[in-house]
């Protein structure tokens, strides 16, 4: 059977805010309308809506359906916290389109700073009696609950097993600011030096404040459709060449893949399904909820071997403007603001269309995007037709 090909035909952002902001519902509608306008479509064309949320922190699909006035949906899904972060809605939309369950899908991620969707794991006293969240009853005696501590432990383990220096993470953080300076939408645009990075407040040794993404309020939405439908729309054609998800051992802490989560199996599936190879990739949008995650994805995707990412970065030259593999060209979550992964995909689409303005990667024709870490990950390869 010949598999249908899916295109990303529209992208849209709300305004991005730090501190006080419009309601998350208003941000969601703004991003959805912008994505439809970018694709040259009206809401009535939409017959599928998909979204990811963490702890009921965003409007659900049926609410957006009624608000936009799309009419009946033949496919829809609200993905919960076990999904692969913001790309989970896109994964569901992609699968529905492949299966022929809908023809025009809208996928979105909305987040409001300060609401439940910070992504932080709850502490034991917030978990109902008799229940367990990521085995925290076994971890809390050691103070090991919460994502901050979990990432710090992964960084310690990486140093013990694979080596490396704190500066390796610093180059990821500094790179985000190089690119965000070119992005008017980015929240953090001031330059960062290695001294700034190394001097940042330590949250849990060796995790520094500047290793962490920057919480904001905002929304990002994408329109996906079949290749045939996309060819009749107004934007240059950007196709999804390959898509993969994985869970690894299915646990943040326990299991044989503490350092990598599902990234290794996800990357292997991604390349196996792809029609192109690593050498064809012109840029990357790799999840940067923490700098550790980005470094981990670089190695999982095979751009270098495990433990060699620090040398591969070449003091940041590899991933910056003019580098061999420009990375997170919007500034990513570390600088543009944390929109939970979907904005990485939107930025790559802009680049492949040749519409990224002063941060445009010359000749960009293929890109890889990854989302999340640990037991719920997803990745895509996209290419210009």
Describe this protein with a few key phrases.
alpha/beta; about 30% helix; 2 domains; Peroxisomal Thiolase, Chain A, domain 1; five-stranded mixed beta sheet; about 375 residues; globular
Structure description:
The protein has 385 residues and is an alpha/beta fold. The chain has two domains: 1-118 and 215-235, Peroxisomal Thiolase, Chain A, domain 1 (3-Layer(aba) Sandwich); 145-214 and 242-385, 3-Layer(aba) Sandwich (Peroxisomal Thiolase, Chain A, domain 1). It is 32% helix and 17% strand. It has 13 helices and eleven strands. The chain has helices spanning 24-39, 61-68, 87-98, 136-139, 147-162, 166-180, 194-198, 227-231, 263-273, 291-300, 309-313, 332-335, 342-353; strands at residues 6-13, 48-52, 75-79, 104-111, 202-204, 207-208, 218-226, 238-246, 283-285, 366-371, 377-384. Strands 1-7-4-2-3 form a five-stranded mixed β-sheet, sandwiched between helices. It has a four-stranded mixed β-sheet with strand order 8-11-10-9. β5 and β6 (207-208) form a beta hairpin. α6 packs across α10. The radius of gyration is 20 Å and the shape is globular. The chain starts with 5 loop residues before the first strand and ends with a strand. Residues 119-129 have low confidence and may be disordered.
């Amino acid at each position: 059977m010949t598999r249908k090909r899916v295109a990303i035909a529209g992208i849209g952002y709300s305004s991005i805010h730090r501190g006080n902001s419009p309601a998350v519902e208003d941000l969601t509608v703004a991003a959805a309308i912008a994505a439809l306008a970018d694709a040259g479509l009206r809401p009535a064309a939409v017959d599928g809506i998909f979204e990811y949320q963490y702890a009921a922190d965003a409007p659900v699909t049926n609410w957006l359906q009624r608000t936009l006035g799309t009419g009946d949906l033949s496919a829809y899904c609200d993905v919960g916290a076990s999904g692969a972060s913001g790309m989970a809605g896109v994964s569901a939309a992609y699968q529905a389109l492949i299966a022929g369950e809908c023809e025009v899908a809208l996928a979105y991620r909305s987040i409001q700073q300060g609401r439940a969707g910070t992504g932080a794991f709850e502490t034991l006293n917030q978990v109902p009696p008799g229940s367990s969240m990521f085995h925290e009853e076994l971890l809390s005696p050691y103070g090991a609950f919460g994502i901050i501590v979990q990432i710090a432990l992964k960084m310690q383990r990486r140093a013990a097993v694979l080596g490396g220096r704190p500066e390796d993470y610093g180059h990821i953080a500094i790179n985000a600011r190089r690119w965000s300076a070119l992005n008017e939408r980015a929240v953090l645009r001031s330059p960062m030096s290695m001294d700034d990075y190394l001097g940042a407040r330590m949250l849990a040794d060796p995790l520094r404040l500047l290793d962490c993404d920057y919480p904001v309020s905002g929304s990002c939405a994408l329109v996906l459709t079949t290749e045939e439908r996309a060819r009749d729309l107004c934007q240059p054609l950007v196709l999804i060449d390959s898509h993969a998800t994985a869970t690894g051992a299915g646990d943040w802490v326990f299991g044989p893949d503490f350092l990598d989560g599902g990234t290794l199996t996800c990357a292997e599936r991604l390349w196996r399904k792809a029609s192109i190879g690593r050498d064809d990739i012109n840029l990357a949008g790799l999840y940067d909820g923490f700098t550790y995650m980005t470094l981990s994805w670089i190695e999982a995707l095979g751009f270098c071997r495990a433990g060699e990412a620090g040398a591969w970065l070449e003091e940041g030259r590899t991933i910056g403007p003019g580098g061999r593999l420009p990375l997170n060209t919007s500034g990513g979550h570390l600088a543009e603001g944390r929109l939970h992964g979907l904005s990485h995909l939107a930025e790559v689409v802009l680049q492949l269309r040749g519409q990224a303005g002063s941060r445009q990667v010359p000749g960009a024709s293929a890109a890889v995007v990854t989302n999340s870490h640990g037991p719920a990950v997803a990745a895509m390869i996209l290419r210009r037709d």
